[in-house]
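Hi there,

I know you've been waiting on this one. I reran it after we fixed the sequence typo, so this is the corrected version. Both the input and the resulting structure follow.
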Amino acid sequence: MARRDGHERKVRGSQIRDSRTEKRRGSGRTTPSPDQPTAEGGSVSDAATGIRDVGAVLDSFVESPETAAVTERVERWVSADRPVHLIGPTGCGKTALAVRVASERDRPVVWINGDADLDTSDLVGGYDEQERVSIRDKYIHNVTKSTDIVRDRWVDNPLTVAVREGATLVYNEFSRTKPAANNALLSVFEEGILELPGQRGDDRIVDVHPEFRAILTSNDVEYAGVHEPQDALLDRLVGVYMDYYSVETEVEIVRSHVSDAPVSLAEDCVEVLRTVREEFEWNLGTRGAIIAAEGMMTAPEEARDDALFVEVMTDVVSSKVSGRSELEAVRDCVADAVEAARGDGS
């Protein structure tokens, strides 16, 4: 991304530059290298951050009456220039929905992942670099005068980039960031300005671009590692609560990710996962069913029997297990669910 003064801006955080034209090119698109120009003419010079490839997210997004309804709700508030806060259990599709809505705006998309170690400077930027400017005077014959000037250089971070460029900010798991760091969002949402702590003079205040929008996601506050955002910020957000989709939609989501999986396998993975989810009151996202289907498809078709399925499903959900005794209970639950499915003629 080039600045107006000709200097290249380095950005900490991922950027997405995706237009509808590029999306229509299909799955043949490759992820640009960090310095490769992106869909709308920008580039990312920080190789450590890279560009988030939204192609896979968009290609696997399932269009159903359920997903269409919640998409419409979010798009309504985004159109009204209100920041949207998607709240729900892990694995219920918040991030995919946020990326889906953001990509439809045909605006640059800037991505932030919430983290307890993030502070305000990680969001807005700071004097993180120094640049050396050399001035050489050759006006006097046979005399060369050289002067080196070392000066601090301001580096914009994701929030500032989004505000300046009129991008859609997707702030994933924002409640994992300590509330104090998110204070920078208050003036952005309320007064339409962003203050850059540490910046000097007129550059201290950035006017929010009229096309700037924000979609934030977070798990419920009872999740480990989640901070409860301050009321002052929550008052400026529109909250959209999400839950796990229906069986039919979850099956379609599994098939969209594991395209070679038979319908019957996708149905089995979803049904058993939902049984374990309800039995143990665990937050098991659709991602678990996707992983199970992937695991089953690694085996030859003739080897995909019930014994393998029980083993695969047990492995998938075992990360939630607190001890070996509970693992046995989970395996029994999975086996019973498979037996019940076969008894129903599935």
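Quick highlight: The radius of gyration is 25 Å.

Best,
R. S.
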